[in-house]
What does this fold into?
Amino acid sequence: ESAPGQLGFSSAAYSVMESSNSVTITINRVGGLVGALTVTNTPADGTATNGIHYVATTNTFTFAAGQTATNFTVQINDTPGTNVDRTFTLALTATNNAILSAPTTATVTILDNDSILNFSAATYSVVESGGSVTIAVNRLGGSADAYSVRFATADLTAVAGVNYTATNGTLTWLNGDVTAKTFNVPVLHSLLTNGNLTVNLSLFNATNLTVGSSVTLSGQTNAVLTIIDAESAPGQLGFSSAAYSVMESSNSVTITVVRTNGSSGGVSVGYATVAGGTAVAGTDYANTAGTFTWPNGDNSPRTFVVSLTNNFATNANKTVNLRLSGPTGGATAGIMNAVLTIVDDDSLVGFSANAYSVVENSGTATITLVRSGATNLPVTVTFTTADGTAIAGTDYTNATTSVTFAPGQTTTNLLIGITDNVTTNLDKTVLLNLTAAVSLANPVVLDNTLVPTNAVLTIVDNDVYVQFLTNAFGVMENAGSAVITAVRYGVTNTAVSVNYATANGTALDGLHYTGQNGVLTFAPGVTTQTFTVPIIDDVVTNVNRTVNLALAPATQFYFNDFESGSIGSEWTIINGMPSAFAGGYVSPTNLNVSVTPRGSRHFLGEFANNRVTLTLTNLPAHTNLTVSFDLYLPRSWDGNGIRILSQTQGQGPDVFDLSVAGVTNLLHTTFANTLVSSGTAADQVENQAYPNAYPGGDVPAFTGATEMNTLGYIYSASGSTQAMDSVYHLTYTFAHVAGTVAIQFTATNLQNITNESWGLDNVSVVGGGTQLGAPVPNNLYLGSYSNATLTITNDDVVDLVAGTADPLFSRGFGANGPVYSLAFSSNNAVMVGGNFSTLNSARVASLARVFTNGLVDSTFNPGTGPNAAVYAVATQPLYTNAVVIGGAFTSYNGTSRSYFARVFANGTVDPTYVPGAGFNAPVRALAVQGDNSVLVGGDFTQVDGQSYNRLVLIDTNGNVDATFNVGTGANGTIRAIAVESDGSILVGGDFTTFNGLSLPRIARLNFDGSIDNTFHPGLGADASVTSIQVQTNGAILVGG
It folds into this structure.
């Protein structure tokens, strides 16, 4: 407790009986006890008055070190007489740097404990035929304490036992209870004409039960009850009820007026419907008025009719006011005002929502119809479906059905059959509609403004597909690495994984790049993932080279040895080398000869018969395996003595076998060398052939073999020789379901030649349940870009011819739609805007960034991007290469943006840069000024709800700069903007006047938006100006 602490009241509310003389208040100290603290309390009147109800005193209290609380009292005055509870307030103020904590104010309530017990009225009346009358007694004044009072009846002109039944008793109120208490006085009908009679009612013996003392009564402690003689009275006239109701389809309703409590003499009363209800005369009912009369002795009821109109519209119940007036003949007034409620009997039927969704593998979609309004009758509607983007019979089952709501039924469900197409595509829609035949027998209303009668069912695609962002990636060879982006589409709320791998194209692993493989995992909500391919700069001027990229579902597993080009990057077959291992690659340990004919392979010689076994364990579920490898055979294949090269040179084996333990022998081939004539006596070629069925030829005889370079070696009569290496890429697929596999690679030396050798490279084992591209668990598919090419662009100097196309800029397939705008971004990359969905084979949405080699920059990821064309792009260099865009779009990656937005360098939209409600029409031109404010031109006439005709300045915060004033602006679209070095602004477009002046399609403005009168374009342009550029010498280029 090293802090001084804080001071505050122990409660924000206190209460005290006014008879208690004082109230105790506590101030607490919390949060620390170090040192002394001082605080001042100040009272103030609320409904209580200082000096009358309490005594106000301002006090200062000092807390000593370690003191946790202090108490003080406020004097309370017990005021005589009954009144109400009253309040005053207390407030703390800190002194000497004390700190307060809530509550720092408190309210004190003084509870009045004085009460007055009185009759609710001075007179009561009841017709002698009424049976009884209820008498109410009120408690007035304070609510504190419990009270009781005695009551009793006494004869005046009425006689107990003849005209009424005498009664007495006690009424009691608990502490805090102020509700009225009642007692009943029974009256007796004498059947004699004896005039009205009276009974005395009295209250006495009041007691404060809480304190046990008697209370002096005052006020209305006596009252008179009049018993009205039913035989001699002219009676009472009134409606039979204060409320009537009728269904609107009933056409009319009958209202009854009655004469009660006497029938002596003739009486009359007027009746009428009057305005003021929610029903409208002439629309919902017909006005009516008249007079009823009763002769002496007649007490039969009278009736009148109110005509109704059935509007066949579901709405609220409506009311009509009914009134009686002017009773005559001494009749008293009964119920003189009544309300007629016209009950709407139409049912409002519609969909429970205007949008439904269902996952496509759900089997059915449930559509709910709701009914409101009148529900007492059956009603029928017709439900139909129609194609939106979904197709009946393919995506869903078409439905047309009659739906009946039974009386009292308010909801019903309909089922629509949904077909899982097991194909990754976009969400699809079905249009839902309700119709009805309205009649008196079917009082149903369909009103789309009240409840939807049209709705859309979205069939949510539950499939996921993953593919590369593009099928053509690019990187400069001096970049160090290339970032490869994979994207997923469809369902994003689950985790999915795919494998990736690189393979040689024209680029060689270890020489031009470092091979990669692994798993990309997309967490829920994540739509992009990347992996990196290291690039090796060979510092040699040469051609561009390619790396092959591949994706496979993670349920298809990989083993491979795609490693860097050093010892261990391939398996070198060594006599006596260990043969079994799991995963990874073999790193030879007893090399004695190393030959590197292609710069990255390493082989041994001097061996006879050798086998290496690849053993993989703990395989995931699969139904087939595919093994692929490069078989390398140096120099001549078999050492049969027919060779020219030295015996110390490596030779190939005689027989090669590929087999799977316990499954099958996939390859058995015997190699042979033969001398054949090349067509001249001077030149001969030693050919290698396989298998024995193809003697003397070099035709690949087994499935999957692809010749990668010439077989054997060539020599000439001159004695010169050229060693030739053979490399074959072999692929075999076989059925397999076990969790372990052992794949054997075997070479046999038939002639026992000591220097035969061979090698393996790029060995991979791929497992799967189905072929690539087919569905696998979790509805994961590979998209059309499951294979891609990475182009490594040579960065070394080449001579370019002026005016010719830049060979280093690869535009590929270009854009599949118009390009409207270009702007330089960071590192001379180019921002591209237009109305396209692919650029250079990459999937983009009207906005992309490309490298200097023309390939799309996959690190710029706009997501779904703008939802319509981008007409203008401009870079804001002061904001880390953010760009502003304008166009016909109204959203960007799902975020609302009205025709204008700022986008960060990574492709995401700036959430803070928003000009209010935005523009009311497309933006077509942008220009960034030196302070990064943006001039915006286009079709618009309003920005953020204010009038700005087609040109406006947006400040660095995204707001309209009101100091830039163009007056009435342009009378037509602005399509081009350029800023000169002195800050002057050139605008071009379709307009013929600007701020009221004739300036056909081109004008120059001062920095504040006013017209530069020194700029004289004469007759201007005779058609639209679409582009303006200012050269370094100040000359202006105009295009259109």
